[in-house]
Amino acid sequence: MPLPRSLANFNRRFTNRVSRHVAGWLPGFGIVIHTGRRSGRTYETPVNVFGTEGGFVFALTYGRADWVQNVMAAGSARLRTRRTVHEIANPRIVAAPRHPDLPFIPRTILTWIDVGEELRVDDAAR
After folding, report:
1. Which helix (H) or strand (E) holds 34?
2. How many CB atoms within 10 Å of residue 99?
3. Do 30 and 47 form a contact (C-beta atoms < 8 A)?
4. Residue 44 bridge partners (DSSP)
5. Does pLDDT of 1 surpass 60?
6. Which of 17, 53, 68, 74 pairs with 44 at a CA distance of 20 to 30 A?
């Protein structure tokens, strides 16, 4: 079961404002730049993200949050991570109860809090 929506709302209002300043360069973090599916506005959402061969994987700690739905609807977005902007495409949600492609510590935490899905995307430049 993903983390509660109340925690997601708290993070959106408070924590994201702080983490936005470091998420673009810290390992294991990034900023998804996406377009709202109803508003058409551009949003920047700090996330946990991990590189894979040919793309990236995001653990869906809050389930299918608004940013996930926006990326799925658009079929693409941009990701700023480690001071580089990537065009990402081909988003797909996959069941991953054990998170085999993630580093040990995030994999252990996500398994412990029972996060069972990941969003996988391709790096359009690769």
Report:
1. strand 29-35
2. 20
3. yes
4. 33
5. no
6. 53
Checking if the pLDDT of 12 tops 80, the result is: no
Q: Which domain holds residue 54?
A: 5-123
Contact 117, 89 (CB under 8 A): no
pLDDT at 61: 87
Average the pLDDT over 50-70 and give the result.
92
Q: How far is CA 59 from CA 38, 40, 47, 84, 107, in A?
A: 24, 25, 9, 20, 9
36, amino acid identity: G
For 51, residues 6+ apart whose C-beta sits below 8 A from its C-beta are 81
CATH code, 18:
2.30.110.10
pTM here is 0.81
* 36 CB-near residues (< 8 Å, 6+ apart): 42, 43, 66, 70
Structure token digits, residue 107:
């994999």
DSSP 3: P
- Neighbouring-strand partners of residue 118: 59, 94
pLDDT of res. 17: 59
